[in-house]
Each structure stands twice: as C-alpha cells, then as structure tokens.
Amino acid sequence: MSSPSPTIEGFRAAFRRPSLTSAEIAWRWTFGATTAALLSFGFIDYLDSIPVTRANSVLLSTRHPVLVARAITQMLRGTVNRGLLAALLLALALSALWIIAASIGRLAIVRALIGYFRGDIVCHDRNGIFGCEGPRTIRALIDLNFLRVILFLAVILALCGTAILAGFISSNAHPRPGLAAALFCGLAALIGISGWNLNWWLSLAGIFAVRDGEDALCAFCAAVTFFRKHMAAVFVVSTWTGLAHLVAFGVAVTFVSLPLAFIRVAPSRLVIAVAMFVILAYLAVADWLYMARLAGYVFIADMPDPLLTTFPLPPPFHSAGIVPDTTIDREELILSDIPNIALET
After folding, report:
1. What pLDDT, on a 0 to 100 scale, did the predictor assign at position 2?
2. d(Cα 95, Cα 75) in Å, to the nearest integer?
C-alpha cells in the first residue's frame, strides 16, 4: 500500500474547496485595492498641495533639464517633510491593516483545511478539529505577522546600509565601480535569501499556531521541528507548486507582452484592459497555487506519521502453534541423483 502524496492532496483540496481560494483572494485583493487607492489619493493630494508660482511655470515650460530640475527643487522645498510624514503614517496604517487581515484570513483558511483533512481523509484528534480556537490563537498570528512586517523593514534598512557600504569602496579619488557593484549585489542577494527564508518560517508557523493553539514562539519552534522531520515531503510540495507558479508566470508574461506589441496600432485602452485582465488572472492562479501549497503543508503536518510512509508488506501467515516442515525427505526417489530410478521402481 503506497503512502498518500501531499502534493496531490494539496491540489485536490484546492480543487474541491474553491471557497478557500476565494477567501484568500478576497482578503489579499481587498488589501491590495485599499493600498492602491490610498497611495493614489495620497499622491494626488500631495501634488495638489505643492505651490507652483508663475516663475516655476515658466521654468517648467522651457523643458530644459537644468531649468526643470531647478523649478522642481523650488516647488518641493518645504513640502518634502510633510510628504515623508504622510508616507510614514500611511505605511504604519497599511501595516496594521495587513497584520489584522492576514491574521484573520490565515486563521479561517487553516481551520477550514484542518477540518477538511480530518473529516474527509483521516479522523484522528489532537486538540479536536476546532479545539484551538480562542484569543490566544489570533494573538499568536498577529505576533507572527508583526514579526514579518519588522523583517520586511529590516531587509529594507539592510539594503540601504549595503548601498552605503558599497559607496565607501568607490570614491571620487579611487573609483571602483565594479567592486562596489559586486559587493552590493552579493550582500543584497544574501540579505534577500535570508529575509525570504525567515519570512517562510514565520508564515509556516501560522499553521501550528492555529492547529495547536500555541503562542508565536512555540509555533515557530514547532515549524522548525516539522521541517526537520518532514524535509523531503515539504521540499516536494514546494518544488511542484513553485514549478507550476513559474509556468504560470511565463504564460502571463507572454500574454501581456503580445498586446503591448500592438499598442501603437490598436486602441491603447483596449490593450491596457487586456493586459490588466491577464495580470489579474495570473494573480488569481498564483493565489490558487499558494492555497494548494498551504494545503499540502497542512496535510503533512496533520497526518499521522504512519500514513506518510510506505506500509511494509505483511509477514507470511502461519497458524498458531504450527511450524512449517522445511526438512527434505532423503528417501524420496524423485530426489535421487541416479537417472530414471523412479521409472525402474
């Protein structure tokens, strides 16, 4: 009897429960639309607050790079601080909104996946299907998502520090642009990989915060233990969903680039509408693949260990108290070394 495949079970759960993908798309796209609207309105409002004098208008109308830069500098003087303060407040508000939305969405989706697997595939119980509800679970998810926001900020600051450090190597007196670029790219790649790994760990810990009702630290430790115990299965699920995501990305880039090639001959609004439709379709497929990957992780984490390994073949049947006779009768004529002795007798 072969063991069940977490990858197949993850895709099957995504197929059978389209409401889970719809819930994931709902909270992600709602947050994305809110972010885009706030950024657009904030940028427009900031542009409206910039004073433009008649002299600045004359300098802008010349379209000379030096004069235009001087006009922009004069217009932004005294308004940059206000714009930075507004951007900081907007970033804090969006971070708080994302933490709350991501925590509620992850709680509902992981609970639904646990109920799906425990109800339809195997009926074993740790804390009950929904025995880990309560304020402690949502608090743990909020802590984990808060750490993810802090990690994102730390990555940005680390990249800024890397750029400053690379700038010290190449100076006006001793220019070394190649060495500076190589140092920046190497450190940036290291920072990016480290940040991605930590973000993946924190995201995986949300499964155990919901399943076991643990706090953020215990959930993170459970995620590390889970990965060390089921490294091969997690790698297989991540690889297949990652390859599918890569294929979807390639198809989306192809379908977006084709209408953009006809932007000079076709109506620009139609081309932009088709490109936006393809982008939205790609984002929906990406969310569906993310749901399949998350379902695969939940399947691995919530299944008993014997079900994730191949069952051994049963031993040969022997009746109780009966030992099979394995001795050979030496008097049997058919076993004689003399040919045709059985026929002669």
Report:
1. 56
2. 30
Alpha-carbon 284 to chain mean position: 14
Give the residue ranges of DSSP H helices in 17-79. 18-48, 54-62, 65-76
Give percent above pLDDT 70 in the chain.
Answer: 82
Helix, strand, coil percentages, rounded to 5, for the chain:
75, 0, 25
Other C-beta atoms within 10 Å of 89: how many? 11
pLDDT at 324 over 70: no
Cα–Cα distances (Å) from 145 to 29, 125, 206, 225, 332, in that order, read 18, 27, 9, 20, 80
Cα-Cα-Cα-Cα dihedral of 33, 38, 40, 42, to 10°? Answer: 180
Q: How confident is the model at residue 45 (pLDDT cuts 50, 70, 90)?
A: confident
How many angstroms separate the CA atoms of 326 and 340, rounded?
26
Tokens of 297: 């992780």
Q: Other CB atoms closer than 10 Å to residue 252's CB: what's the count?
A: 19
- At residue 194 the predicted structure's pLDDT band, cuts being 50, 70 and 90, is very high
One-letter amino acid of 181: A
Enclosing H/E stretch for 249: helix 231-260
Instruction: Report how far apart, in Å, the C-alpha atoms of 133 and of each of 130, 143, 186, 211, 301 are.
Output: 6, 16, 44, 9, 18
Amino acid at 13: A
Instruction: Classify the C-alpha dihedral 147-151-153-158 as positive or negative.
Output: positive
What tokens appear for 229 in the block? 């115990």
Q: Are 165 and 183 in contact (CB under 8 A)?
A: yes
With vertex at residue 284, the alpha carbon angle to CA 14 and CA 266, rounded to the nearest 5 degrees, is: 150
Asked if residues 27 and 291 have their Cβ atoms less than 8 Å apart, the reply is: no
Q: Which structure tokens are listed for 266?
A: 């076709």
The three-state secondary structure class of 130 is coil
Write the DSSP symbol of residue 174: S
The dihedral formed by the CA atoms of 131, 135, 136 and 141, expressed in degrees to the nearest 10? 100
